[in-house]
Each structure stands twice: as structure tokens, then as C-alpha cells.
């Protein structure tokens, strides 16, 4: 007999919901076959905190599609800052505050666990303009 509580235990390595991930990034990015991220107009119009989240989702796509060999999905605030043109201090603030319930950290590098894609969906649905700073 199986334990009825087992169905509530999730593995952090749960497979990515590719359909949901595609919906989340639709209109924000395109990617070259070499893994370069091309930001679209819809991305540029987002708040800085949402840009950080979206870029982490973009990194998940690059890893999943293996566009760059030996690519790590996880990224530190400095690397995210360099890619986005947002101060590293601000990126760290967004990761620690606004995105703390969505992202996880592994050796000071951040990523979105596959099981939190639904939280990303809810955050990205919120179209209310936010002030950053």
C-alpha cells in the first residue's frame, strides 16, 4: 500500500512544463541557435523586477534547449545585472524581496525551480505598473 502523503512530495528536479514556459516567455524573447537572447518590445516595457524574473526564465530555455554547451541555468546578480543593464545592487534587492518566493539560490546563483512556474505566471499576469526603487 502506498503512503497517501507521497503525492504531496515534489522533487526539485521535476521536469519543466515546456508548454507553460513557452507561454510565459511568449513575446518577451527570441533566441539565436547559439543562445543569444534577443529582447522584444514587450520585455523592454516591463518593470525591472519582472525583467530579472523573465531573464531567469530565458536562461531556463537556453539550458533546456541546450543552445550553449555546459550552460548553467543559475545566475548571480552581477551576471544578470550585466545582461539587463540594471545595477547589481538593485538586482540583488529584487531577488531578495519581490522574487524571494519564486526564485531559489544555489551557491549565490539564482534560478526558478520548475515547480514555481505557476507562481511566475501569476506574477507576470499582474499588469499593474510598478515603480522600481
Tags for this entry?
two-stranded antiparallel ribbon; globular; about 40% helix; two-stranded antiparallel sheet; 4 strands; about 130 residues; 6 helices; Arc Repressor Mutant, subunit A; mainly alpha
Note the main sheet: 2 strands, antiparallel
CATH topology: Arc Repressor Mutant, subunit A
CATH homology superfamily name: Winged helix-like DNA-binding domain superfamily/Winged helix DNA-binding domain
Number of domains: 1
Unreliable sequence segments: 129-133
Basic shape = globular
Q: Structural class of the secondary elements?
A: mainly alpha
- What CATH architecture label applies? Orthogonal Bundle
Q: Give the strand line-up of the largest sheet.
A: 1-2
Helix tally equals 6
The overall strand count is 4
Rg, rounded, reads 15 Å
Task: Tell me the fraction of residues in β-strands, as a range.
Answer: 5-15%
- Helix-strand topology string: HEEHHHHEEH
CATH classification, class level: Mainly Alpha
Helix content: 40-55%
